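Dear colleague,

As promised, here are the two records you asked about, laid out in our usual form so they can be pasted straight into your sheet.

NAME FIELD: protein one
SEQUENCE, THEN STRUCTURE:
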Amino acid sequence: TQTVEERAGEDPAAFKADGANDVVYSGPYHGFFSDDTKVVLIRDDDYWGQDASMWGKLPTPKYIAHAIYADNNAGFVALQALEVDVSQQFNANVQELWLDEGLPISTYLPEAPYSITASLPTAYFNLNEGGAFGLDNVAVRKAIAMAVDYDTIIANAMTNQSPTFEQVPRSVMNPTEGEQSLYDQAAVADLQWAGNDIEGANALLDEAGIVDTDGDGIREIDGQNLSYRALCPNGWSDWQAAIEIVAAAGENIGIDITSEFPEWGVYQTVFTDAAVNDYDIFMVWSNGAGPTNPWARVRQLMSSEFAGTAGNWNGNWGGYVNPRIDEIIAEIPLTTDPDQLKALYTEATEIYLTEVPSFTLMYRPDWFHAVNESVWTNYPQVDDGTNPPVPPTNMVRGYGMAGLYNLTLVE
C-alpha cells in the first residue's frame, strides 16, 4: 500500500483507482489478462509450492478465468450451457440441472441444501444518527422481524438451499454443529421466532401503543407514519426476492415498507457510510465459517467500534450501541473455561434477540459450489475420500486450493 500511496500522491481517487497489479503474491497463479468481461490468471510454473516439502507438484489447470456476468440469471444460463466449470453464485433450483435436464452438474452436498450453510445474510435497521424515524423503538424492529415469512424466503428466494428457522432456531450462530453447541438454546427459546407471526407482531405493536389513528392503514408514532425503504443490490436475485418478502411483511402489520435495488456501485457507498441515510432496512452478508467465529460474527453484528463510521466494511452497519455487548466481545477471546464461554455466547444471543438491531433472513451457503464435469472432473465433494477433506470454496480460497491439484480432464 505504501507503493500505491506514493503513486497516488495526495489523491484519494487515484489511490482507489490503482489496480495494484504489482502487488506481492505467493500463490500458484498471478494476473494474465482482464477486461470488463473476464479476469484471467495464469499458473506460475516457478511456484515454490511444487517443492517436495509442500505440494510436490503444480496445480493442474494452467489458466483460471473468471467470467463476469450481469447478474445471477446470466451466470445460470452460462452454467446450464456448460460454459462454466465452477459456479460460485446462487442458482435457483440447482438440482433440476441434473435431475430434470441430466446435465453433468453436481454440488458439494448431493441433497438440499447442496452446500454448507455457514453465512447469515442479515437485514440491518438504520439506527445511525439521523436514521429512520421509529426504528429506535425495539417494538417496531421486532414486529417487522417477527412478521417476515422466512419459510417463503427459503422456499422461493433460496429454493430450499437453506435450513428453516424451525430446523435451526435463530441466534448469533451459523447452523454448523460446532457453533450450535456454543450457546444454551433452551435459555433463549422464548426469544426466538420462526417468522410469519402476524398476530404476534400486531399484538406487540398494539401493546406498545403504536397504532393507526387516522385510518390510512399505516401505524404512527407521535402522528408520523412508519414508512421505510428496504434495499439490497440489484442483480443479487436471492437477496432481492428476500427483500421483497420483507416489504410484504410490512403490509401485514400496518408498516409501509418499499423495496429498492440500487446498483452495487451505489449500494456499497450507502451502507458503508453511517452519515448516509438513504436507506432504512438493508441487507449485508455475515461472517461464515472460520476459526475466529462466532466471536467475529458477534463483533460484526453489534460492536459499537464500527458505529457512526465511514468507509466501514467491518460490521454493525446499522450503528447499534450497547456497552454490555462491547464487554462481552472483549471477554470472549480471553475466556478459556468452556462453561463461561457458553454463558457469554448465550448472553450475546439473548441481547441480540431482545434488542433486534438486525435480523437474519436465511442461512446461506458460505460459498455456493456447483460444478460442471464436462471438461474437468474430480472436484471436491463431501465424503469423497480426500485426506484432509477439501472444503467447497471453489478452489480459490484457503485449503480449497487443494482441489486444483486433484482435477483431471474428462477423457
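NAME FIELD: protein two
SEQUENCE, THEN STRUCTURE:
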Amino acid sequence: LIHCTPLQPKVILPSMKQDELDMTTLPDELDLLILPRWIVPVVPRGLVLEQHAIAVHQGRIIALLPTDQTHELNVRERRELPDHLLIPGLINTHGHAAMSLFRGLADDLPLMSWLTDHIWPAEGRWVNPDFVRLGTELAIAEMLQGGTTCFADMYFYPDIAAAAAMDAGIRAQLAFPVIDNPIPGARDSAEGIAKGLKLHDETRHNELISVAFGPHAPYTVGDETLTRIRTLADELDLPIHMHIHETAFEVEEAVRLTGMRPLQRLQQLGLLSPRLQAVHVTQVNDDDLRLLSEHGVQVIHCPESNMKLASGAMPVKRLLDQQINVALGTDGAASNNDLDMLGEMRSAAFLAKLIAGDPTALDAHAALHMATLAGAQALGLAEETGSLEIGKAADLAAIDLSGLAQQPTYEPVSQLLYTCNAAQVSDVWVAGKQKLRAGKLCSLDIGPILQQASELATRIRKGDTHES
C-alpha cells in the first residue's frame, strides 16, 4: 500500500490503486510525526495499519508511511504512542451544547413531559448569552476529552456558541434555531433567520466554523417559514438541520392535523435533498424509507437519547441497506446524559443488532465510519475531515488500548467499539493543533468552567430568580 525511500518518502494513499499513484515529496521539516501502534484511516473501510506513522504539516495530513522509514525525517515534534490506536477525530452530528448545564435536571420522563413541563420552562427562565457561553464551553471540554473534533450544535444564541468554538479551536456547525414562536434571542422566525444569516456572513471565511438553518421540527415551524428556509438554503447552499420523526406521537399528530406524515409534508415543500440533516428518524415506514433514499437525505442517529426518552429506535440496517448515509450524534447532555461518542458508537451497534435481529447489522468498522466519515458527509465536510487521507485536515484522536479491559487486543477496532469510552482517549488534534495531551486539555481552563457551572446549578436548583 505504501512505498517510500528513507530520504524522500513517496506516499501512496491507502485507497489508491497501483496505477493511480500520487507521489508526494515531504517538506524538509515536518511539523508533527505521530507513531501509534495502529492507524485506522477509515478509507478504505476495514483497513488497519500497524507500525505506521502519520505526518502532519501546516495542519494537514501529508503522509502515511511505515514506522521504520521515519528515522531520518526531520520533524519539530515526534510523538511516540506505542499502545495507541489513531483514528479520525469523532464527529458529533447533533447536540445542544449549552444544555449541558441542564444535565440531570429532569431525568426519567417522557419526551413531551420532559420538554413542556421542565426543559422549556427552565430555558425561558435561565437561558441568556452567558448561560450559552458557559454551557458550550463545558460541552466542548467534555467532547474534546472524548475524542470529538467536530460537533453540530442547534441552540439559542448561536453566535455565542460559535465564539466559544472558535476560542477553543474545535470544528463546529452551528444550526441557528428557527421556531415560529418567540425563543431566547429571537422574537420570531424572521428574526431568527436574520440573525442566523448575519452569523453566516461573519463566519464564512473561518475554516473551523460552518452555519446551517435550524428549523426545530415540523410541528414548531409552519409552511411559510419552511418555504422561505428552503429558498434561502438553495440560494446560499446551506444545510438544513431539523428534528424529524422523533416520536410516534409526532407522526400521528401530523397525520391527524395535515393528513400527511412529516416527511411527506417536507417533500411537498421541497425540503428533501442531500442538504437536509434529518435528526432522530425513529419512525420509518416503507414510504419514509423511499423518500429518504430517493432524495439523498442525511440521517442522524441519536440512540442513547432516543432510548432514554423512549422515543423509538431508528432501524439503522434498513437505512444502510438502501445506501442512506447515517451519521451519529449524542443529542444534548440533558437527555443523554453525556457527550461520549465512543459510548454512543457502542449503543448504536448494540441497538442496530437487536432491532434487526442480526449480529452483523452494524460491525465495528461500520460503527466507526458512522462516527467519522458519515458525520463529515452529513455536514458537508467530507473533503475536509472524517478520514485520515492525504490533504485532509489533521483532525485526530488517539485511544490508549493498554488497559486491562482492552487485553488481549486481537482486533483494535473491535476493542475500540466494545471496550472503550472517553476515558481511554489520550490525545486529540484539530487541524494539527493539539487540544488534548495525555488526557489533559491544552486550550481550555476547566477549573473556572466547573466552578461557574456548579454555582449556576445551585441557583437553578433553589429556584433563584436572579439572572445569571
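A couple of things worth noting about protein two: The radius of gyration is 22 Å. The longest helix spans residues 129-145.

Best,
R.
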